[in-house]
From TrEMBL, chain A:
Pfam families recorded: BPD_transp_1, OppC_N
Keywords: Cell membrane, Membrane, Transmembrane, Transmembrane helix, Transport
GO annotation terms (biological process): transmembrane transport
Residue ranges occupied by any ABC transmembrane type-1 domain in the UniProt entry: 87-277
Record-annotated membrane-spanning stretches: 24-45, 91-115, 127-146, 152-169, 200-221, 255-280
InterPro entries per the UniProt record, alphabetical: BP-dependent_transpt_permease (IPR050366), MetI-like (IPR000515), MetI-like_sf (IPR035906), OppC_N (IPR025966)
Descriptive protein name: ABC transporter permease
Topology in membrane: Multi-pass membrane protein
Domain of life: Bacteria
GO cellular component: plasma membrane
Family matches, as PANTHER family: D,D-DIPEPTIDE TRANSPORT SYSTEM PERMEASE PROTEIN DDPC-RELATED (PTHR43386:SF1), OLIGOPEPTIDE TRANSPORT SYSTEM PERMEASE PROTEIN APPC (PTHR43386)
Location(s), subcellular: Cell membrane
SUPFAM superfamilies per the UniProt record, alphabetical: MetI-like
Automatic annotation (TrEMBL), chain B:
Bilayer-spanning residue ranges: 580-603
Keyword presence, Nuclease: no
Position of the signal peptide: 1-24
Protein name per Swiss-Prot or TrEMBL: ABC transporter substrate-binding protein
Gene Ontology biological process: peptide transport
Taxonomic lineage of the native organism: Bacteria, Bacillati, Actinomycetota, Actinomycetes, Streptosporangiales
Keywords: Membrane, Signal, Transmembrane, Transmembrane helix, Transport
GO molecular function: peptide transmembrane transporter activity
Automatic annotation (TrEMBL), chain C:
Domain of life: Bacteria
Name the record gives this protein: ABC transporter permease
SUPFAM superfamilies on file: MetI-like
Similarity comment text for this entry: Belongs to the binding-protein-dependent transport system permease family.
Species whose genome carries this gene: Planobispora siamensis
GO CC list: plasma membrane
InterPro entries: BPD_transp_1_N, MetI-like, MetI-like_sf
Amino acid sequence: MNETAARRRGALARFWRDYRAQRTGLYGAAILAVFVLLALVTPLVTDPSGLDVTKATGPKMAPPSAEFPLGTDESGRSILLMILWGSRVSLLIGFLAALLSMVIGTVTGITAGHFRGWSSAVLMRITDWFLVLPSLVLALVLAAILGGGTSTIILAIGVTSWAATARLIRAQTLAVEARPYVERSRVLGAGHWHVMTRHVLPNVAPLVLANTTLTVASAIVTESTLAFLGADAGQASWGSMLRGSYDWGAVTSGAWWYVLPPGLCIVAVVLAFTFCGRALEAVLNPRLRGVA
Amino acid sequence: MTRLGGRLAALGLALSLAAFPATAAQAVPAGVQAVQEPAEGKRIVRLGAIQAIDSMNPFLAVRVISTSVHRWMYAYLTTPDSKTLQPSPDLAESWQASGDKLTWTFKIRDTKWSDGTPVTAQDAAWTLNKIMTDDGAKTANGPAVENFESVTAPDDRTLVIKTKQPQASMLELPIPIVPKHVWEKVPDIGTYEAERYPAVGNGPYIAVEHKKNAYVKLMANPAYWRGAPKIDELHVIFYENPEAANVGLKKGDIDWIGRLAGPQFQALAGDPNIVQWNTQGRRASYLQLNPGAATADGEEIGDGHPALKDVKVRQAIHYAIDKQALVDQVQNGLAVPANGSIVPPMYKDFFWEAAGDTRVTFDPARANKILDDAGYRKGADGIRTMPDGDRKLEMRFSIHTEDPIEDKLAQFLTGWLKDIGIQLTTRKLDSNKFTEETGSTALYDIAISGWSVNPDPEEVFATHLCSRRPTAAGEGGGTESFYCNEDYEKLYRQQLAELDRPKRIALMKQMQEKLYTDAPIIAVYYPNNLEAYRKDRITSITPIPEDKGILYGGSGYWPVYSLQAPAGPAPSDDDGAGPFTTAVVATAAGVVVVFVLGLILTARLRRKGDDDRE
Amino acid sequence: MTAPIEIEPAAGPAAGPQEGRGARRGALGYALTKLGGALLSIGMVVVATFFLFRLIPGDPAIAYTRDVPLTPDQLALLRRQMGLDRPLPEQFLDFVARALRGDLGTSYEYRRPVAELIGERLGPTLLLVGTGLVIAVSLGLWQGTRAAWNHGGRLDRFSTGISLTLWSVPTFWLGLLLLMVFAAGVGPIPGIFPTRGMEDVDAPDGPMYLLHVAHHLVLPCITLVAVVYAQYLVVMRSSLLDEIGQDYVTTARAKGLRDAQVRRRHAVPNALLPTVTLVFLHIGLVVQGAVTTETVYSWPGLGLLFYEAIKGPDFAVMQGTFMVLCVAVIIMNTLADVLYHVLDPRVRSA
């Protein structure tokens, strides 16, 4: 056992060395660390009552000032405060939707790769189907049918974005199962469950991680687009702030402090996730090593 | 540039040129001055609308934009007077009601359709009969003729309408009269699109072109019986994006926007070319409090909170609402706090204002006292319970999705009701579901609603009748409150038959007082009507009513009929550059912008290329 | 949204050498298999559409009347006309039969056949999406080639970085900003582009009409291109990198061929094929970009129709547009798949 632990530690060290070589990946990780940290400390250092319109103190649509570094919105709430609290909702939706997508994708992918015959064929047909459907359109329809709310948005994004992951994981599962030691363990009487969880899962896990990172990025963009098109989470997220700036005429009244910060935050976080995902992929996918 | 790169770039450029075919062929043909700008000498007004026409067939159209355009194209029997809003002659020169108030005789004006055919009473009779007999023609105005027994035209100038019950709102029929000789050839009214231009009409304007989802072009009707309008063309241009419409107005792409949302209205402040038009509106916004919903047969339905059956609770809620704060905070001051009921103060004659002891003011202490006295005790958590049980006063507040104003209102209401021991949670529903839950299945406690009132407010009173409640099968009849009160019913029946205007108004005011004190609904504010136009493009426009009235979306055609505009092309912001040059430059710039990035990169590549070679 | 970063095309032809079974059957057999798959997918879209839209709470007949009070008799009649009184399986068969005939129901809002509304909006969408796609693909392939050939260099980092940044931008936000700057004008930048739609009243006739429309097309097109071209760049870049690693490229270089020649004659043509195929596989992304772009610029296309239907809500139109968009994407995919198979010698002989 100790030997395994040492080997894992070694692998981790190797991974870190490789990852460090990916400069954009490092930048991405740094940006993410800052945003996640801010999201985590927000409840400790700020007062959420400032988000309540009845308690808002500032002037309406005021430009940045000492008291409100990023100005105020149509109700006199601090944009900075909303950005901070909105980051929690946006990141949460991004993570949870990606998590949901990852679980569905991994389970489908491993199952379709492990079992052969018609069950695998059916699963792959469904996967291909989800893969080609315009997912935003499907997510909008789902959100319209299920009604608003954070969980609906997470569900709508998660359910429409897992197919690519499933494809990737299935291919990887096929490759792993062809390895001699898996073959040996099967001959020795290992059941399906054992093979899938003990051999396949640990081997595909790194790829799942890289893929999930990329899914978070697209989930955050999708959340903001859904909010703009009218399916919002009911809480102040960056997407619903942009929708608010549109609803309350910030664009024509020139309130750039209301329009720009949420958008720039989305771009920064999405880009950071993308950089991390690409770096992870480059490190973990031997075929691509040194390419990305 | 390397050869391949050059080729790819050339390919890209060629493709994009293929996509912009006109850019490639830029010989300057004669007469291009017509591009985009009105021809010299024409007086044109361009109205922007945040809505597209749903149908050019007046039997089907329900959107405000469509019914407005139809108002301008077709005469109605009567039109609201430009000063008093009382019915005044339009297609009907005069009228008379029989002693039993069941027979109405109209004298039809001797005028012509735009194709030269004379207008006769047959046209009116055919139009109304079509709606009465053809289900496909009922979509837009079916309810308006429900009470009609028969409509006949004994001669070309006389129209006779017999009704089943007396109908005081007979002079407010919202029905455009269409030319029989054109429309009787239509095989199926219910599916007819009416996209034939120029349309045959007899209003001040004639529609000559409709590009779906883009614009409607109307021309002044030279044969209009009041005389042709003072402008030559009226364009109605559709925007999906209200922000883009605002930009269009500032820039001069359009000259006038009606029905602006508050934020867009305020964003136009300070522009020297723009007149901001802020007047009292036609709409009342109110809360619906489920008063113990039942069907038209009296069977209880839905799951409304039992406490709301108690008129004292409803009144207490009324005292807990700071209407002035709602106006200031939610409507940005662009509304009037409601000290009345469902009729907004714009209709001076019909508006009833609470005064003295009846008037409910913001007074949470009094609200708390009412609830205390009625036996609703506050628990440790500050939430009250029913006097006869454990049920807490926890209620739902139903609003529409995608409505930032209602969303904001909900946040305020939740705060105030908490102060009087009522816990409110907001539910956002799409408009279908909202209508169903608040109009037929009664799955609500408190909901937000509103109604745009016509110069004759009868219909808005009818929405609170017992008979408007849903049927036993649960099908909605159009109730706005599930209200059912014997006194109210009696007053309604009296006003129906009362043809004396002052007496009828007195009855209607009593109904408003009843609604105010019984509180099945609580009016919160009357939103202002917000519009804006360019003063360099519209030199004169008369609102309806003339004293501080509405420009677009009001009843009647007075404002568009009164429009005056300078002749010739709109003054352009950019100096000298003609519209053609602008278009060419802009298009070329667009193509360039797409490739500029690439070119820069290529240049960089060339520098870097040699160093990077492995 | 699909991440543009799938270096390995997740679906379709390049999905794995392990799956060569279909390939051995010859082109025709392969095409038939793919066609069958596409038909199955379309069937699944129809089934899913039917049941998804039956899940919507509320009575479609009441939704159809849009607040106009009806008598119970009228409502019952309407239900009968809409077929709501029949059992669900029967309704489903009816739905399928109608869909096959091109009857997608009647819009709640416009009172017109949904198929007709879709037909009207198809042209503008094809213009916008088509132009956008052509530009995005040319730009993406070109920049991708450049980036791959200089991979690791400053140019690579710069162009990949720019494209990924633009990819991270929410489409509607970029659209609003561009509208603000180039249609309204900010500071010294004049607002030289129109604020809405595809054409204005009194649009000129003949060739000048094309210029008129092109003028309106510029901003929507830039918005669409900016957001989607990254995926083509990234895919082209990685395909080309794959090729560069191949023995034949090394050999060609060893033979002393000039870099540009190697690139042009060998590497790029080989890398182009999978990339172009991917253009079609990812067409769904462009379609959804069109929904937001059309909304921001009031462009009278399918995407705007879909957005209006959501706002209505006009479930009949929503259902019809949803089905048409999905089926269009499936057809494009299948075409790409078959074409790829026919064109690529490696897959054919595998």
